[in-house]
Amino acid sequence: MQYAHITGWGKSVPPATLTNEDLATFMETTDEWIKTRTGISKRNISHVNTSEMASVAAKHALAAAGIDGCELDLIILATASPDTLIPNIASKVQADIGATCGAFDINAACSGFLYGVGLASSMIKSGQSKKILIIGAERLSFYLDWSRRETAVLFGDGAGAVVLEASNQPGGVLGYEINNDPEGRDILKSDFGSKMDRLDTDSLDFYIHINGQDVFKRAIHGMGSLSNTVLEKCGMSIDDVDFVIPHQANERIIDTLISRMKIPKEKAFVNIADYGNTSAATIPIAICDALSQGKIVPGQTILSCAFGAGLTSAAVLFKWGERITPISVSDANLPPCDKTALELIKPAVDYFFNKANNPK
Ligand code: UT7
Question: Which listed residue, of 37, 209, 229, 244, carries a Cα 20 to 30 Å from 87's Cα?
């Protein structure tokens, strides 16, 4: 019997930080509103493409697992903000790390990383693969209309990755559930506008729209019900869970979810204050931070759940192995950035405010 264990982990967060106070310099918002309604204090704005962040996170995860890229059987990259649609950006990471295996992107929005972990665990348990790299990487700042305060304050950029490896040691991914609620397709989206005419640039509507309250309610329901299903399937109850790593979209969503599931608050990991919502990257970044803060300990049973556009949801239950320290460390890093976050976003801020103030 093969088990699928997380043996490596890594993250890459761009250096430019955009604080709530920075946002308040060009839109009608306050640090207090953002903090109390979302839990976010700051987020990172990338000066590079999604694939560059993904490659750096991947190199750290490979080093932590003590393996080379050429040993991988598969690369799964979860993103809703690839730098190229064709080819996929998993292939760019593959080139950067010297892997010779299958590589594909998945778009399940914020749930994408857990979709990837679930699929990878099935492939390992079936004997199809032995070592799989799963990455969550996003540059959602690229999609934001900075004149829309209801969405612009929520998101940030970053990447995280894990290596999942076959082992005879019981544990690892115990079970997973994935789902999609198509009735929620329109309440969280970024599309090409009603005309779908790429030559009519005025009709393009290429930014994130959210019906926040509707997503809020469905997110709690979706994550809660899948979490319960996966626990039931694994013959466990919530009392068996030592630690919860939820998707970081809004601290109030996390609070409501864990209180409904009767999980003590101290069991839930929350790092949204520092990053905002990095979509598919929130959970692998959280795994890295929880490990470096000593919150993950050997043998712990961990529940992770997410929701995102689609409306997708996913829940994965896993038992951490023995090792909580990296086998090796990579010196991979993003290229330096000589601009502040405000300077990086200024052209887009000017464009969107000009558009909002001068409707056609
Ligand atoms: O991971 C998946 C993607 N994430 C999501 O889809 C997010 C899910 N939803 C949420 O996190 C929350 O619904 C939001 C944070 C988006 C909004 O929080 P809310 O408590 O649902 O606020 P609301 O939409 O009911 O807005 C309350 C007020 C409104 O003003 P009025 O109508 O009461 O006068 C908004 O215009 O807050 C106003 N508002 C803001 N005020 C200051 C909205 N955005 C802002 C802002 N700063 N940035």
Answer: 209
